[in-house]
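ok so for the tutorial part 2 we go from a plain amino acid sequence to predicted structure tokens. step 1 is just haveing the sequence, like this:
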Amino acid sequence: MFKWLSYGNDPSSPTSVTNDKDFFSHREWSFTMEDDIYIRYQSFKTKEEMADAIQAKQPHKIDIGAVFSACPKDHKTLKPENFHTGRTVLSPLFCLLHTIFFMCIRMYELLIHE
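step 2 — the prediction. this is what the tokens look like for a chain of 114 residues:
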């Protein structure tokens, strides 16, 4: 999943014309927690850091956002002109499939707990 969401960009290799080593760490993730608590501006430098955060917080839903000009978790320390979306979000079809997938998981959880 990490490789797929990095679009072939490798953070362990130097930045070049074909490799943006900061691509994954500049992507915004948001978590929806129990009771619809919404946490924005999550970002991760490594797949291990992402896995640790997911295991620690155990979100009910994970949303994949845009790739920004800097790490989203640092957005409060940056001037607004230095923090903007550098790339658009994933395709509309992927977003639809993503939503359906998490709706199915949520319905399954509700059925189990009845």
